[in-house]
Give the backbone structure.
Amino acid sequence: MSASVPLLSSRQSSRSSSNTKHVGGTAWPGICMAVGFSALAAATKATGTRLSSYERIFLRSCFCIVMAPVAGEVPWPPLNSRYRGLLLLRGALGFVAVWSYYESIARVPLATLTLISRLHPLLSTALAGVILGEPVKPRQLIALLAAAFGTAMLVPRTEELLSSAQNSTYGYMCCVSAAFFTAAALLCVRTLSVLDEAPHHAREAFHWGNLCGSLALGLPHGFLWPNRSELLWILATALSMQLAQLALTQVLRNPMVSAAKYFFLTIVLNLGFGIIMGDPWPCVREWLGAAVVVLSMIFSEVPAKPTSAKA
């Protein structure tokens, strides 16, 4: 394992110059990723709780695997890859993160769920810096911390947490679990990108990890078939997940910090989705927090003025 760190560091340093010029390189994929994950959260919540998390994850994974040929990909697990162990780890971590997210989504408000689970941009950026040696520029650090401050403004007040019938201790524990396991899964995706692994291998490992994990842990409890409405919403989650995963692998071709801010954008988008689905109307403080997140993204994307040497 120690021998792989210099390899990752050298490959990362060789790309550092090209990764700095990411205006337009990560913006659209990052926005598509945020829209995909936000739509996924809304569709998952709309599916309801009659089906267990295992059943919903299993059916969604089946849809995603069937959709793979539409995107020109082979719908089989990448067992012939040189990095099978890392791909298996990516699939396992992704399943635990998704399961934690599904368990919490019916128990806490959508914006609050997104807020807690989206602590992973800070965690994944820190892990990428320690393990992959990825540098963080001052401008990127300021934007990332500003986005984190904006999300902190979206935290419900204590009395709101206590009075909301949707909230539960178990739900918040699952939110935290989703944050940590998502950060670890993203680090796997970024590492695979640094190692020049095919992006679709990471996506296939994720879908097959979700399918196998949900089947192994959920099958002993029996299987409940969805009704028509639930099936349509699960199909919507599959479409949203496909969009999010396609954009995610594109964004993570750049350093982790370049992708982090777009995960904060999902919090802003979920404010709107949450209102549509019956969550309380955001207060002024929450709207200001959303504005801070958006402005921090704009600040990060606008390149600094070059310093030209005078003759």
Q: What stands out?
A: The two ends are 49 Å apart (CA to CA). Residues 52-300 form one domain. The chain has 13 helices and no strands. Residues 1-7, 9-24, 161-166 have pLDDT under 50 and may be disordered.
